[in-house]
Amino acid sequence: SFTWKESGRKQSYGFVAQELKDVVPEATKVPEEEGDMWGVRNSRIVPMLVKAIQEQQTLIETLQAEVKALKEA
User: Fold this and answer.
1) What percent of the chain has pLDDT over 90?
2) What DSSP string describes the chain?
3) Which of 17, 21, 27, 71 could form a disulfide with 44 if both were Cys (CB 3.0 to 4.6 A apart)?
4) Are 28 and 21 in contact (CB under 8 A)?
């Protein structure tokens, strides 16, 4: 969560573009002129998040199978 500097409005979820730039630069819209607002291209983040969830699910299933095998041994 963060607070917008200009309006003071609280944001309960989202990404800070300046922080995201170091991790996923292709999902960040850097302003052309100083003083313009940065942006986040959320649609470019979604496929990465889905892939990460798929990888985690595979790992979870592998670990569950290992735990089950250890319990049965």
Assistant:
1) 71
2) -EE-TTT--EESS---HHHHHHH-GGGEE--SSTTSPPEE-HHHHHHHHHHHHHHHHHHHHHHHHHHHHHHH-
3) 27
4) yes
Q: Where do we find the tokens 């990465």?
A: 48
Give the Cα separation of 48 and 62 in Å (integer).
Answer: 21
What pTM was estimated for this model as a whole?
0.67
List Cβ neighbours of 21 (8 Å cut-off, separation of 6 or more).
Answer: 28, 30, 38
| 52 Ramachandran zone, left/alpha/beta (phi>0; psi -120 to 50) | alpha
Cα–Cα distance for residue pair 41/32, rounded to 1 Å: 16
pLDDT for residue 12 is more than 80: no
pLDDT tens digits, one per residue of 31-64: 999 889 899 999 999 999 999 999 999 999 999 9
